[in-house]
Amino acid sequence: MSEWYEGDLLINGIRIHYYRAQGKGSGSGRAVVLCHGFTDQGRQYGPLARVLCDDYDVIMIDARYHGYSEAPRWEEKPDSMSHDLAGLIDALGLDQPVAGGHSMGAGYVFRAAALYPGMLRGIMLEDPGFRDDFGRPPLDRAAMVKRFHQMTFEEHRAEWQKDHPQWTDEMLDLMAQTKHLLSPECIRMQWVNVPWQETLKQIHCPILLFTGDVALGALATPEAVAQAKEICPDLEHVHTPGVGHLIRYDSPEPYMSATTSFLARIYGL
Fold it and tell me: What is the pTM of this model?
């Protein structure tokens, strides 16, 4: 039996590709949905899925424009990926799953928790964009995609290995592969323009927040974290020093430990 079941769902007019871990937890009803960051793909959550799959039903999504999911050919709207997440949860018949995401994925999980009250049992946010302005202008994004597609797999891999020599072969291969899979149509993507503080005020499920060091490229600043804790005193925060934006890639152990503890509390294991 393959490690992952792969499938496609037609959601909001888009074919969304997903992976489902084939572990003992696949029939448990304790679902965990994982949402990758910009330019990445669902299978990059593989190491976490392997840790969780004996206890949880783990689903990894390729977001629209990414991996093996489809890209829309019409004008994009800021909350489209949040609506895709809600559609996938409905289509798979998941009962109040926990959803986690990194960067872009954290952003749309975060918004989904506000837009669909009661849909999620808890959320896990890895370095979300808790800032007032971020994102690439479309022309910069187009140049980035062109460069990605011009580079060979070997060139991509060597570039990532140079900057992250501690990564496994699996993660280096997936990171190199996913850059080729990113659709040029991603120039249509619209970042959410609702202040994150307003969104946080609308969320009533448990939140686990992961942050790294801003000096090394992390998005969420200490000031933003302090604001978040004022708005949501029960928010659980895990800061990993010495890493930037790619927290679970560069320091997987603290991330895995906090994630498994959070899920065990949420599901009462």
Answer: 0.95
